[in-house]
């Protein structure tokens, strides 16, 4: 329907637009004419005052000092008229021409100074004023370009009247100087005759284009007493072309001609008002026509819309209902069915698309197509959901198997460590122990990603410093991790494993992107009710865009399946942080690199008494640094084993303190008694035995570096 009605409606609108453009052009032309007449009349008033100043200046330079008192007010009037004209000037083409002509009056200051000092010449001064008046009087206001005949005739009559007034003003100023000087100088009579001829020609043009009323007004202006007196003085001047002396009172001539010029200015205003009235009438007519045209356009558009609406209702209403059904299918039914399939609640497909009553055959075909699309989409989505669920279950099962095997492996390694007496073999077992611990963390990462819970949880709270050391023990280059100031705080046992896992991932990430000779620093601070752990590296850093995307992953956004494998650690941290309500954010380090800020909320902090002495006491009582690593017999099992008395601690064959299982550590008295009874014989003091013990001690100290560094060392 729209295509059917579009062509005739477009053709109608084009025709109406053409007509509207013409009417708008008429309106603008009338408006521009009215404004041009307003500016023209203001310019004519400025010209009138310039003509007065010119005449008084000519009389003063001609020797009649009586005009000096009238000259100053005349100059002030010229300046005021100039300001009025400048206020009317806008930004159009006509305004630019008027502004250029008005700027030529800037030279008046010098001419006036020459007149006041008497240094100015009468002929040159007269020519300057005449040139400026001519610039203003000859301005083209485009009044003859209008399409209305009445406006064109009025504009031509106004222009002719302005030329006649200028010729009359020139005659007044010129003869004022001649009468003041007592007669014509050489060549001046010819100038006077030219002025008189110009005035007569302009008045003839005015009579040809003026209306009867305007002609009558012109006849009245030139039949007053002042006009007859001025005409008499003109005849006297015409009769003195032979160079005789003239005995004419310049004041009388000036007064009579000034009255005539004032009357001619009033006639100009009358002609201008007639033109303005005609322009206003044309504006009103154009406004009415434009309004009618706009109404017609609106009626045509409304009729077209009504016809199109009525014609398309039979098709549009069923399609709207069908679209609503399709939207409901895409936004509610299909996602809900997929969710049920993913959760294993049921596999029933969504209901078929409802066909509107009274629908046409085409609409029914579209509904059938939607049904087929729905069935195909549901089948694909269900398959993907089931595949995703089974994949997650398989990965979780595989992660648990790996975790169990690694737990058994760690237990076996611990047994071998207790039985190993060779320092080199013991150091190798420590490294193997560390590798198995890292492998267990990878298995736990897999469980975290697939949403399976880890069985490693503590029932009692643990110091934050111990949690940090447990995390450090799970990274490969643990020797490059430095603990700075760590405020004392207790973490709930149920979150210890997750926090340690998060810290291990972030620490290993910082180590991977740092130079091999630069350490990663860890700080812990109490901030109000929360606790902030900062992992700072001085590595290559990240751009602002990369930081933003990384923080999105750390907030738990996105899907690890579709992401690159190098970002899996971020997704693990994000999942753990989301589960425990912990805020994790990456920010630029102070110099270079990245700082990971882990904010532990007050909800997971505990006020329970610590299970081990504070860090300062621990480092003071450890005879030889105990390894910080997971023990297979406990849930989180990250502990630093203190010795109550160095003499009572169990020893290995090479004299080092022996690590004890957690079950035996629960009964310190029995363990001590057994240790004293089973203490091995003193080791040999041969150079080879001493060298072996020192090598074992150096290897153990290097392995346990992260457990004894930081500001709490004693």
Give descriptors for this structure:
8 strands, 714 residues, single chain, three-stranded antiparallel sheet, mainly alpha, five-stranded mixed sheet, 20 helices, 66% helix
Quick description:
This protein has helices at residues 2-61, 68-88, 93-103, 108-117, 122-137, 149-181, 188-209, 212-221, 225-238, 250-343, 361-419, 423-449, 464-472, 493-512, 544-554, 568-580, 615-621, 662-665, 668-677, 687-703; strands spanning 462-463, 481-486, 490-491, 520-527, 530-536, 583-588, 594-600, 605-606.
Your description of this structure?
- With 714 residues, this protein is mainly alpha-helical.
- It is 66% helix and 6% strand.
- It has helices spanning 2-61, 68-88, 93-103, 108-117, 122-137, 149-181, 188-209, 212-221, 225-238, 250-343, 361-419, 423-449, 464-472, 493-512, 544-554, 568-580, 615-621, 662-665, 668-677, 687-703, and strands at residues 462-463, 481-486, 490-491, 520-527, 530-536, 583-588, 594-600, 605-606.
- A five-stranded mixed beta sheet has the order 2-4-5-7-6. A three-stranded antiparallel beta sheet has the order 1-3-8.
- The longest helix has 94 residues, at 250-343.
- The radius of gyration is 54 Å and the shape is elongated.
- It starts with a helix and ends in an 11-residue tail after the last helix.
- Mean pLDDT is 75; it is low at 610-649, 651-680 and 703-714.
